[in-house]
Amino acid sequence: MRLERADLLQIYYLMRLTRAMEDRTRTLFLQGRVAGGVYTAQGHEATTVGAAMTLHDGDCIVPQHRDLGMQLTRGGSPRAVMCQWLARGNSPTLGRDGQLHIGDMHHGIVPMISMLGESLPVACGVALTMKMRKHSTIVMATCGDGATNTGPFHEALNFASVQQLPVVFVIENNGYAYSTPTHKQFAIENLAERALAYGMPGESVDGNDVLAVIEAVERAVEHVRGGKGPALVECKTFRVRGHSEADKADYVPQELRVEWLAKDPIVRFEAYLTGEKILTAAKKAKIEEQVRAVVDDAVSFAEQSPAPDPATVAGYIYAPGGPVAIIGEPGAEDPRYVNALDSRTGRPFNTVTETAKPQFGAPEEVGKR
Amino acid sequence: MSAVTYLEAISQAIREEMRRDEAVFLLGEDVGTYGGAFKVSAGLLEEFGPERVIDTPMAEAAIIGSAVGAALMGMRPIAEMQFIDFITCGFDQIINMASKMYWRAGMPVPMVIRGPSGGGVKGGPFHSASPEVWFFHTPGIKVVVPATAYDAKGLLKAAIRDNNPVLYLEHKLLYRMPELREELPAEDYIVPLGKAITRREGEDMTILTYGAMVHQCLKAAQVLEQEDGLNVEVIDLRSLSPLDREAILESVKHTNKVLIVHEDTLTGGIGAELAAILAEDLFEYLDGPITRVAAPDAPFPYAPPLEEAYLPNADKILAATRKLAAY
Q: How many domains does chain A have?
């Protein structure tokens, strides 16, 4: 994939936006304004943004809790994300669920559940449909090192391979599953080796180097898009903060954390862009201003949004009857279909907003809302 | 048109729905080439091909999870559990993934999970399950249990056309039972989810039941009429979620006595919830204790005398009705 200057700046912007959204979420949490726990992914930005950069319109992501970068790169709405954290009644889940448990099929995002690894068989079903219906789109499903130990991970990789499904599996190996280091989780060096057992290509890449991530994931995407079945990429990164903001992560050796902090993906990419004279001081200031504006807008939108109506607590248990559109096929957004709109509210799904969709235009336009 | 078995009725429903709607497909272990462990899907591979009749690896989470993913895309998958006991291996996909999806994300998950359930076939502890209560307790899942060939076909068609995850529990003992053979309508029909049916009218007592126990209850009711002069009403719930509360309350209001019969174990079973509903809503109508006949609180046993002792049957039902009638 040929990356123009504007693309590189867009990637930088998305990585910065991801970090800034999480920094702000943490502040809100410390101020007691977030309803529940907060899970962030400092250090994952090269992996999540880079991997998602390789996708096209109509492709589907099956992200997990540290994939804000992936959500934003695919057009995920910062406002929707903040409404989730603040448990607002107009969040994509209507305040019924929090965190990054958001998505809708029209925008190609499968909402995760907390049982990590369980999304991977679902990714297979999305891909199975694409294959059965002869769509040209693909699925990108992610999981952490922890989830690779679950049964569904192995069932999904195996099934995807047997059925030659168009799925790219991206493992974000960040060193720890909560407090458990990788050596207590599995007895192999590289999780990419798991691919071998399931007859699919797999490679490991430096997950803190965004350009390397894009290159490796692009290879996997090309393989998958070519109809050759699934592929796997292990992005080796590090969770420099705790599992959640309630976790001090004092089980992580200090020198290890320092080592990885020095490999911060944003700092590294910034150094590259500066060295190549793509990112000037003026451009950087401009991008920072845009990032701040988007985050401020998301927070103020969420704060002004209504709390959920307690009277709705037992509602919307069953979907109504009526025709259901096959996602990605002509006319799927015709409101006569039960799944065309969010039938709970009668409004369009709001996990993605048009204004938040990445813009690949002139760099000075990057992130303009 | 010849009379068909309960099993053939299920096969007909799948075949007709696959012909009617190309979004419908079947996946599960041995469902294709082999035609399913009980031959429910025999001939489907030949008619619809391997893309719509998918032989899967032995991996229930992959089967059910893939069905969820396909349903999110707008397909109408039918995921077969070779024996319903194995549904535990894909439990999370049902409880945490499928059942909460519409509630939290607004996206329908139109899928059916079906498989042979129930005992009486010397299946032992891992091939005789009646798993309904785990799902009955879970908001967002519909649960249906057909007792006749007509309902087997009509409920399955309704389940496939429903926009929610539906657990369809077919009873393996009924699959080829000769007395269940019946002529089915030539035209398309469904049995709506959420509607019970009165299998036998009576005014002395109501028996609430479902699945294979419907037939045991009908046997007992016949004996009661002949030997005791009692007219017992037998209600086949058919649909456990949603539950037809109206039909239940209506019947018990006019009989004033109620016996609940199920093959599943007693504690925390469907009967417990029915009893609570009746106690709350019809306290003043009841002329006798709400009585339950169910399997004891023990795993399902293998040896014939143990299975006989374990399962409710017409004799055990008869004894309970006579005790209740004495009030």
A: 1
Q: How many angstroms separate the CA of residue B107 from the nearest CA in chain A?
A: 6
Render pLDDT for B246-301 as a digit per residue (tens, 0 to 9).
999 999 999 999 999 999 999 999 999 999 999 999 999 999 999 999 999 999 99
Token digits for A285? Answer: 């200031």
Instruction: Decide if pLDDT at B137 tops 60.
Output: yes
DSSP annotation string for B151-183: HHHHHHHHHHHSSSEEEEEEEGGGTT-GGG-B-
Give chain B positions within 8 Å (CB) of A321.
161-163
Is B64 within 8 Å of chain A by CB? yes
Establish, for the pair of chains A and B, how many residue pairs have beta carbons separated by less than 8 Å: 168
Question: CA A81, CA A91: separation in Å to the nearest integer?
Answer: 8
Kindly determine whether residue A129 and residue B57, on different chains, have CB atoms separated by under 8 Å.
no
Q: What pTM does this model have?
A: 0.97
CATH number of the domain bearing residue A98: 3.40.50.970
Q: Which chain B positions have a beta carbon within 8 Å of A343's beta carbon?
A: 106, 108
List all residues of chain A from 82 to 111 with a beta carbon under 8 Å from chain B. Answer: 92-94, 96-97, 101-105, 110-111
What domains appear along chain B, each with residue ranges and CATH number? 6-180 (3.40.50.970), 197-325 (3.40.50.920)
Of chain A, the percentage scoring pLDDT greater than 90 comes to 94
User: What's the pLDDT score for residue A27?
Assistant: 97
Exposure pattern of A153-174 as b/e (b: 16+ CB <10 Å)? bbbbbbbbbbbbbbbbbbbbbb
The complex's ipTM works out to: 0.97
**Structure confidence at residue A351 (pLDDT):** 85
Residue A316 lies in a domain: yes
Domain membership of residue A366 (yes or no) is no
Active site (annotated) includes residue B127: yes
C-alpha distance from B251 to closest chain A C-alpha (Å): 27
Kindly report, residue by residue over B183-201, the tens digit of the pLDDT: 999 999 999 999 999 999 9
User: In the predicted model, what is the mean pLDDT of chain B?
Assistant: 98
A115 located within any domain: yes
Residue B1, pLDDT score:
61
DSSP secondary structure of B256-284: --EEEEEEEESTTSHHHHHHHHHHHHSGG
List the single residue in A120, A131, A327 with the smallest CB-CB distance to B74. Answer: A327
Cβ proximity of A265 and A66 under 8 Å: no
Return mean pLDDT, chain A: 94
Of A92, A163, A319, the CB nearest to B108: A319
Residues constituting chain A:
369
Q: What is the mean pLDDT of residues A202-222?
A: 98
pLDDT at A362: 39
Q: Does A177 touch chain B (CB under 8 A)?
A: no
A329 contacts in chain B (CB < 8 Å): 74
Residue of A nearest to B105 (CA): A93
A102 and B76 in contact by Cβ < 8 A? no
Structure-token match 């990885």, residue found: A260
Evaluate whether residue A361 is within a structural domain.
no
Q: Does B59 touch chain A (CB under 8 A)?
A: yes
Range of the domain at A166: 5-354
